[in-house]
Every structure is written in C-alpha cells, then in structure tokens.
Amino acid sequence: MKQKAKKIFKQMLIGLGIITALVSIGGIGFMSFSAEFGGQSKDASKTKIEQSPNYKDGKFQNLGNVKMDMSFGKFRSMMKAMFNPDKNSSPDSPVDYVPISAHNLKDYKGNTRLFWLGHSTFFIQINGKNVLIDPVFGQSPSPIALFGPKRFNPDLPIQPEDLPMIDVVLISHDHYDHLDYKSITKLKDKSQRFIVPLGVKAHLLSWGIEDSRIEELDWWEEALEGEIKFTSTPAQHFSGRGKWFNDRETTLWCSYVIETADEKIFFSGDSGYGDHFKTIGEKFGSFDFAMIECGQYNKLWEEIHMLPEQSVQAGMDVNAKVIMPIHWGVFKLAMHSWTDPVERFTATAEKEQMSYMVPQIGAEILISNPALLSNKWWTK
C-alpha cells in the first residue's frame, strides 16, 4: 500500500514538473516573440533620441531628474497595500456609459467637441479633423489580458471599427493603458497619421505602420495638421513595455497642447505634480479646456501620478478655464476606491472655485459650452 502511495505521489510530482515546464516554456516563448512588446529604435530615430537634451546615459530624464523612489520600505508597503485594496476599488456593477452613434460622428464640421471613451482615451472633432488620443479599446491594459485588470464595463461606448477616418492619433507614452497593440492594429488602416514621443515610433513600425505616417516629437516640438498645431510638452513620468523590462525610460513620455486660431486644449498624459505645469501655463497663456490625470495614484508613487488635489492645482497652474479628471473610471490599477479620484477632485475644485466637468463616458463635450457636465453619475 505504501509503495502504491509513493508511486502515485511520484507520478504527481512528475506531472506537476511537466506542467511547470510547459508553462515556463510558453511564457518564455510569449515574452520572446509576442508583438505586444513593440520594437526598439534604430537609425534616424535612435540618432534623434541620443541628441535630445532630455536623454542622458541611455535613459530619458524627468525635469529635475525626478525619479520614483521605491525604497525597500516603500516596496513592502506597496505589496501590503496590493493584497489589501479598498473594498470598493472596483464597482459592484458595470459602469454605465452613453452609447455613441457612428452616424453622429460622420462628416461632422461643427464646433469643437470631445468624447471621453474612458481612462485616458479621447475622440476629438476639431477644425474639421478627427483626433484620437491614447486609444485603448481592449478588455485589459496588459500584454496578457487573461491575467490583467478587467474593464469595469466590458462593453464600449463605440467600437474602434465604427469610428470615422482619423486624421491624427496622439500617443502620450508607451505604457499598456495608453498604447494598446490590438487597438492600434484595428485602427492603423483608418488612421492617416500618428504623432508620438521620441522612441515610440519603433513600436508602431513593428506593428506594420509605415514610417511616413509617424512623427516623433521631443518636448516643445510641434506638428501641424491643417490649421491645428500639436505641441509635445513635458510630463513627469516614466516609460517601458519591453520583453525583459530592460527598456525603462528608453522612450519619452509627454503631455500635449492642441491649438487652433480660436481654442487651446491641454492633455496632461500621465504625470506627477511639478513645476512643468506652471511653465506650460506661462508659455501658452491659458486653456479653454484641460484633461488632467487623476487616478491610479498612491502616496508611494506620487512622483509619477498626481493625487487628486494636485490634479486640480495642475489645472490651475496651466491656467485652464475648465478642467476634467481623467485616467479613472475604467480600470483598477491602484488600491484606492474607484470613486475616490472624482470625489476628491470635485471637492477640491469647488473649494478652489475652479470650473470643472465630469461627463459620463461617451457623452458629448462641447468646448464652446463649458456648462458643468456633472450629475454625479458615478453614484448611481
């Protein structure tokens, strides 16, 4: 009887070993060959990167060389918090949204309008052009969707295939919740042009987008699309999506200014709070509308993600007439409750007498009508 038990136990160990080996081989194969991870800069792109004043010792640098200080104590606190997230870090039911009609978007020539598609994804119709920012339509902002965080609502206000032809796709940096491989592959044949930070071009090239359709910008560089000017402006963050996590800070991160003869819009990208917001405000004067990162934060990493009170201050620093919290409401990427960003943001904005909008995902936002779009839909 003991011999039989030993034999069964031995067989179980062998089986477990085989399964572990297969999983390991599969994981290594995925890491080695998956297109999700993008490419590496070469030739002219690499030369431009190396000439950037923001590039030093093989890495891009934040202004003031600000880095996320992850000491052992902070790491221990982070791991403890990850296993004990707020009980309301995800909603109890799917977050509702406003469906967007493809017919409503087609051939639009009216006043500037925006549609928040959730997290940091925006569709903007401005000066007769269609602009898409940080398109993420996938179910998870992870290279392995099976194990990544899931959308609070698996449906979308509009499918990427139903969007009209896109004149410009803006990418702020190469993290998975801002640059999604599957979304880009669905959009690449209906997108005329891509404007990206230095280094990000390599990812798009590896996904089959022609060099002629991609323009890389360093901070303060500009690109024109008709009468619209796009300026890459500083942010305080980091980058990296490579196979073996050896590509940190080898691509740039940025915010954007979108400017016409009559209007100015600011998109913060991902950023910790810093003096760069005041610099942007001083350079551009004021903004009609500012989309400010507010979500996925923690005191442990506030160097790279603002707290809600800082988000409001950033909007004030850039001299925005109306501000809107973004980077929340779709994915759980931090330990705070899913409504903590909007609750703290709106409370601070009201205290500071700052005009704000919190439109429902999919709702139309008209720049020419800065009425407060805030019916506290997140409480319903």
Written account of the structure:
With 380 residues, the chain is of the alpha/beta class. 26% of the residues lie in helices and 17% in strands. The chain contains nine helices and 15 strands. It has helices at residues 2-33, 43-51, 72-82, 102-105, 181-187, 201-206, 276-284, 308-317, 340-351, and strands at 55-56, 59-60, 113-118, 121-126, 129-133, 168-170, 194-197, 214-217, 222-225, 228-233, 255-259, 264-267, 289-293, 323-326, 364-366. Strands 8-7-6-5-4-3-15 form a seven-stranded mixed β-sheet, with no helix packed on it. The chain has a six-stranded mixed β-sheet with strand order 9-10-11-12-13-14. A hairpin with a 2-residue loop joins strand 4 (121-126) and strand 5. Helix 8 packs across helix 9 (340-351). The longest helix is centred in the first third of the chain and has 32 residues, at 2-33. Mean pLDDT is 89; it is low at 17-32.
